[in-house]
Amino acid sequence: MATLVEFPNRTVRVNAVLDAPMSRWLWLVKWILVVPHLVVLAFLWIAFAVVSVIAFFAILFTERYPRPLFDFNLGVLRWSWRVAYYSYSALGTDRYPPFSLGEEPEYPTRLDIVYPQRLSRGLVLVKWWLLAIPHYIVLGFFLGGVRLGWWTGGLVGVLTVIAAVIMAFTEKYPKDLFDLVVGLNRWCLRVTAYVALMTDEYPPFRLDMGGTEPVEPEELS
User: Fold this and answer.
1) How far is residue 124 from each of residues 127, 159, 183, 220, measured CA to CA in Å?
2) Cis (ω within 30 of 0) for the bond into 21?
3) In this structure, are residues 66 and 172 in contact, taking their beta carbons and an 8 Å threshold?
4) Residue 69 half-sphere exposure toward CB, CA atoms < 13 A
5) By three-state DSSP, how is residue 171 classified?
6) Domain residues of the chain, as ranges?
7) Which sign, positive or negative, has the C-alpha torsion 162, 167, 170, 172?
8) Local structure of residue 24 (DSSP, 8 states)
């Protein structure tokens, strides 16, 4: 009998590659190095919020998320995730993140969200607050709080600090720890895309660890 392998989340995809080798001590000053990004992202996240409100009404009346608005908000999420990956949400690379809203395929992490052709008018009224409440509780533990798309606290922050200390003494980022950190961030990004009205696909309560998203459905004998 052939069995079907379930693909856990096809709409939001997060892939990451752990760079090696990495500096033992650069992580100590990354908080300074990312300041220019944080300044720009502060303005971008204000725009993100405004665009999301406009998209809310567009979906409510037309069932469509205007493509230019979708691409802009996806760009903000991509930029934020690259900065987070470089700094204290993962410390997965020493490559300085580009100032870009684009895909940047050469950077060691990518975030892709499939553009939805139609979105539910009913869900747009409740998914960003009511339906997402269980995830908000979980993410409060994972992140400890989010400000302007920037997350460094909670469990993710603790694990990243542990990874930094291990790297300082061994020059190696433990793979199991990296897989867990990326999995936690993947969960957070899926929820972010959902509450930002960019998908109707409810985020699974599942920790998909590792740098690579699970494969497409296929039949295995």
Assistant:
1) 6, 34, 26, 37
2) yes
3) no
4) 20
5) coil
6) 8-211
7) positive
8) S
Tokens coding 137? 């509780």
Picking from 12, 21, 167, the residue whose alpha carbon sits closest to that of residue 88 is 167
DSSP E strands in the chain: the ranges are 3-4, 12-16, 109-113, 219-220
pLDDT tens, N- to C-terminus, the chain (221 residues): 333 344 445 799 999 999 988 999 999 999 999 999 999 999 999 999 999 999 999 999 999 999 999 999 999 999 999 999 999 999 999 999 999 999 999 999 999 999 999 999 999 999 999 999 999 888 887 877 655 445 556 888 889 999 999 999 998 999 999 999 999 999 999 999 999 999 999 999 988 999 998 765 543 43
Q: What is the pTM of this model?
A: 0.90
Q: How confident is the model at residue 153, as a pLDDT?
A: 67
Which two structure tokens, joined as six digits, stand for 91? 């410390």
Q: What residue has token string 């300085």? A: 96
CA-based end-to-end distance of the chain: 6
Residue the block writes with tokens 């720009």: 40
Residue 115 has what DSSP assignment?
P
Residues in the chain: 221
Is the Cα torsion angle 209, 215, 216, 219 positive or negative in sign?
negative
Measured distance CA(121)–CA(64) in Å, rounded: 9
Provide the β-strand partners of residue 107: none
* Placement of tokens 């920037």 in the chain: 150
Backbone dihedral angles phi then psi of residue 122, each to the nearest 5 degrees: -70, -45
